[in-house]
Fold N-acetyltransferase.
Amino acid sequence: MIETKILNFEMRFAEPDDVPLVLQFIKELAEYEQLSHEVVATEAILRESLFGDRKGAEVILGYYQKQPVSFALFFHNFSTFLGRAGIYLEDLYVKPEMRGRGIGRVMLSYLAYLAQERNCGRLEWWVLDWNETAINFYQKLGAVPMNEWTVFRVTDRSLIDLAQEFAV
């Protein structure tokens, strides 16, 4: 367990037996973000993605009084300008009844610590533009919005079509 400054709050890295809990947190986050219809992850997919031969991400679970209350899913990306890896936080979720206790801040500070320990050049994430509570929270931490960048994504049929352009 990773001890924290919050009384009775500890964290640990997820293990294969935690996959059902990770999926539960993903679904709770999707519901909060009104994106439940986009969740196609299954326990099998997560088990392979998180613990298979080619691990795509890592998960930290947060426990308050031994009960799971939060999670952070992250992975390494790379900055060509810095010439170093970074940590990209895909999801951070704290159960609604546990918010306002500093849990999110502790989890983010641990990820910053981990980024420094791993010689990463930065820690970054996205936030939905309507989530003013999260935006204000992140700005209080010193996070800066990257307003000059636009995120692009290719999925579903567009991804298949683009891939088929390469097929010989």
Summary: The two ends are 50 Å apart (CA to CA). Residues 103-117 form the longest helix (15 residues). The mean pLDDT is 96. The first strand starts at residue 2 and ends at 3.
